[in-house]
Amino acid sequence: MPRPARVNPSRQKNPTFTRPQKPKGDHRARQPAHEYALEALPGLEEVAAEELRGVPLARDLRGLRFWYPGDPERLTRLRGAVAAYRVRAWDVPRPRGLLGHQQLGELTAFLGEVVRWGGHRSFRLAAAGRESAVMIRLAEELSRGLDLPFDPEEGELLVRLRPQEGGPGWEVLARITPRPLSARAWRVCNRGGGLNATIAYALHRLAGVREEDRVFNPMAGSGTLLVERALLGPSAAMVGVDIDPGAVACARANLQAAGREVEVAEVDALATGLPPRSFDLIVCDLPWGDAIGSHRANAALYPAFLTEMHRLLSRHGRLAVVTHEIRLFEGLLRDQDRWHVRELFQVYSGGHHPKGYLLSKR
């Protein structure tokens, strides 16, 4: 009888044993998800929604509402929205129901999670009838439960109460950051009439972000358009000018705080001495005639601006402009044959309704 072949035990395969496999994919996707909602400036909702669609792990998107797992730090880097809120709903017919023992405990725990993550030092309520007896008592109970002072005007934790979207109850939205997302960390210097950073972001996104662009920002002010473009990625060149030395210093300070190197010069935007077709993208927040300039001065400034920018723009370049002098600007463009014009947006911000435009040479 032949002797059986000798088997090396170390090589013998155990059919019942398999090497454990590491789970594939982002580990955050396996963490519990929470519901969130973004707030956008009226008129820029689609800009915020488009940015949200590019956030990894955001799911079940319904406009500006979505679910997101784990640490919400990624959401604080959104630039097309003005605020991000954690959302939870309660099956109560009116806000008074939130004062019930179980509901109040759940609400306090919900807000406590937001506070522990965001580091808020005070809170406020935003709801219809916020000065009612129910809201006053709710503020008192939350102040005790959260160990936070109630500041009805400047509270860092903004808590919104409203009827549940698509449901019978009430929902609570808690802003996850102490300040709005539009209050950029890089803004160490501000000036009257400065452009909202969210509007600047939207203008760049809708005008197009291209690495090969030579970018020019006339009348740069505090540098909002320069910083927001620099944070979007590289460009072939970028320069800003302003005739006001205080504005130049302010723009340089904000760029330094943002960690970006961009040339800003004290030069009259209408007399730069630069050769024709120097830039592929020109972006400008023109004076609106209230905080900066006057309506009478703008009547002379705007046509001169359009003439000089036409000279400085490359053959296939773009001129992106935001202004509240809508009647003046559109009147100048109505009866001319040098520009193609497209309206990008009209937004509500700070009591104004400025429009954004994209111009190209005919």
TrEMBL record:
* Ribosomal RNA large subunit methyltransferase K/L-like methyltransferase domain sequence ranges: 184-354
SUPFAM superfamilies according to UniProt: S-adenosyl-L-methionine-dependent methyltransferases (SSF53335)
Positions of the region Disordered? 1-31
Task: Give GO BP annotations, semicolon-separated.
Answer: tRNA methylation
Pfam families, per database record: UPF0020
> Which keywords does this Swiss-Prot/TrEMBL entry list?
Methyltransferase, Transferase
Q: Which residue intervals are annotated with compositional bias (Polar residues) in the record?
A: 9-19
Known InterPro entries for this protein?
Answer: RlmKL-like_Mtase, SAM-dependent_MTases_sf
**What are this entry's molecular-function GO terms?**
tRNA (guanine) methyltransferase activity
User: PANTHER family in the record, alphabetically?
Assistant: THUMP DOMAIN-CONTAINING, TRNA (GUANINE(6)-N2)-METHYLTRANSFERASE THUMP3
Descriptive protein name? Methyltransferase domain-containing protein
Organism expressing this protein natively:
Deinococcus terrestris
